[in-house]
Amino acid sequence: MIRKRIFVLNGHPAAESLTGSVAQGYAQAAREAGHDVRLTNLHDLAFDPDYGFGGYVNQKPLEPELEQVLQDLEWSEHVVVATPMWWGGLPAKLKGLFDRALLPGRAFDTRTTTKLGLPAPLLTGKTGRVLLLSDTPGWFFRVMYRNAMVVQIQQQILEFVGIKPVKVTKFAGASHPKDGVAQKWIKRAARIGARAA
């Protein structure tokens, strides 16, 4: 087995959540399998999620917590984001983390472009996994919403900055899972974590 450096971000803003349990299950299994794991809980981070200045010239200074998130991203070889879907998108605080921390010069380079004309990614050489919890059934999510949130976090955020490929695992019916289902999800996340996948 090749030991990996894994950064796990529990993107639920509450101190206790099923999303957090899934993230913890992944992280614990990855550690037990011999991987080097750093786990960050969004609810522990104190920062202003509003970018504020609205431009890249006069950037708002990063709080220490956001600087640490960036350092963990740069350190990692595999990035895992566990998040609920709220109103078809990311929780506001998680979106604020991405808005504030993934800045030009650290996450992408607007002065250099790819063959497609996009800013060059700077967080390359990493793979990713999204653990997505929602109430929306998978088929409905695909047909009616065209996987909009998956496209956002997978392609427009993580892969945009160079983390690729990014695989997505969905867990549906998260608000009121049937008896035993939540534990099955945690075990499923643990199996993925043990493989560092």
UniProtKB/TrEMBL annotation:
Keyword set, alphabetical order: Oxidoreductase
GO CC entries: cytosol
Keyword Ribosomal protein: no
UniProt protein name: Putative NADPH-quinone reductase (Modulator of drug activity B)
A Pfam family reported for this protein in Swiss-Prot or TrEMBL: Flavodoxin_2
Recorded GO MF terms: NAD(P)H dehydrogenase (quinone) activity
Family of the protein in this entry: Belongs to the NAD(P)H dehydrogenase (quinone) family.
InterPro entries (alphabetical): Flavodoxin_fold (IPR003680), Flavoprotein-like_sf (IPR029039), NAD(P)H_dehydrogenase_qn (IPR051545)
Organism: Shimia haliotis
SUPFAM superfamilies xrefs: Flavoproteins
Residues in Flavodoxin-like fold domain copies: 4-179
